[in-house]
Amino acid sequence: MTPILRSRVRGVGAALPARVVTNAELAHRVDTSDAWIQQRTGIKQRYVAGDGETTASLATKAAEAALRHAGLETSAIDLIVVATSTPDYTFPAVATQVQASLGIVDGAAFDLQAVCTGFVYAVATADKFLRSGSNKRALVIGAETFSRILDWSDRTTCVLFGDGAGAIVLEACESDGLIASPGVIASRLRADGRHRAKLFVDGGPSATMTVGHLRMEGKEVFRHAVGMVTDVIKGCFADAGVTADAIDWFVPHQANRRIIDASADKLGIPHSKVVVTVDRHGNTSAASVPLALAVAVEDGRIKPGDLVMIEAMGGGFTWGAALIRW
Fold first, then answer.
1. 3-state percent breakdown (helix, strand, coil) of the chain, nearest 5
2. Residues 220 and 309 in one domain
3. What is the pTM of this model?
4. Which of 28, 219, 236, 250 has its CA 20 to 30 A from that of 300?
């Protein structure tokens, strides 16, 4: 059998702001309660960036943690892809800030914007770079400071989101291409821009010359979410020639516990196989999946050889999934 290149996960890392904001604290700011938030979302707390903490600084810390976990020096990296909707600046890209902070002067670095689906899009994009042979090792990072674009008087949105960053190191390795061999096995990406008004930010440099605030039609997003994400997940299963029974861990976007449970139920995935961190992190957009991966690797749930499905849906709408043999 002729060897092929496959993108293998070498390391994972995470970074969270210092400040924890509980539901009880939010109840003093807006008309809500801990019970109301937990019942509708499953969120108990979230992390909020403070002075000196930015998307780039969190992304850099997560990247450093992933490199330590991989046992690699920064010089080993020749590609950095950062998924974010909340960059430090209009430009330069967060990825180039991370590159500079790490002392990397070779390779490519760029940001990718697909909102909450950003990390899945970034994994699929980096995978194609690595499988083409153009690059050897990639830092793939999801990093956000959504607290900077929230309307803190809007209880329907401000209780949902948090800040943080997660990263993985992907390495191009020769593979026999079998389902049992490590690496990114399949990915499916989708988008439908007709749904913009259901989840968007009402500002931007070209349209309003402002940053703007996040706006969301929560019921509409919920209504679309389960069907859309299960569609791409089933597509990955079909591409890989497996069924839901084959996966060891389901790591979904951490937006809402009810969406997570409904997606798992529709796919026939036992809740015992679902990694859930929304209770402690809230919705960290593009950072949510890599943060959840880092938690599950650190606590020993995700182990080498496990088959892991990641998925997400975000504003746009965008949605996607990737199947990875750890």
1. 40, 30, 30
2. yes
3. 0.98
4. 236
